């Protein structure tokens, strides 16, 4: 199907291609083509960029190995997932409402400010049990400090620590040889429950930041005796600390259950796009 081969094709381009492919057929208008697509339940959606290696044979083989590990007993172990995610003071809703014919305009500062990074660990037994907020990006030293702090929480308990293949995670196994650390397959956020937790958290952060009217107000920053950039960073950290407890044991348990639905697809070596 032409739309499957070129999903970003426009209605006009599609209609023109139909004219060239079937010159003997009656010509139709663009609206007719659009209605025909609606009748086939084909709708216009936002296009997402996907890595070319997302469903390569190497990635599928790694997913098969991970799924087999889970079925052979990993699913019954105490699993701790560690990951990080970034936020910006202008992390906010991208849609709004306005009268027809008018734009939705949002007032922002001239600079977007620094990113704030949250690094966290969740457990299938305790939910979120460890997190740190950093204005700088997460480095290997930051990860090592978080892992060390987990020792006091986990103690001698046997737990498997799982993480993705981010650069700051490289070689972490050699730093903690007394811990069982397992890397997730590349391009496989679908089997990383903490990713869904971060998505849930980001929605809350967007909602709360949207209600702070003075986050780009230089006068508000001056009243607090700091620069506008520092004021934005403090607001974002405050919102994050308020929102982080929403990653509770119930949410983590639901995401742990949800990721298991992908294991059979991994075993079958299917292409996974969601």
UniProtKB/TrEMBL annotation:
One of its GO terms (molecular function) is nucleic acid binding. Pfam families: DDE_3. Keywords: Endonuclease, Hydrolase, Nuclease. Gene3D superfamilies: Ribonuclease H-like superfamily/Ribonuclease H. InterPro entries: RNaseH_sf, Tc1-like_DDE_dom. It comes from the Eukaryota. The keyword Hydrolase applies. This is Putative DDE superfamily endonuclease domain-containing protein 7. It comes from Homarus americanus (American lobster).
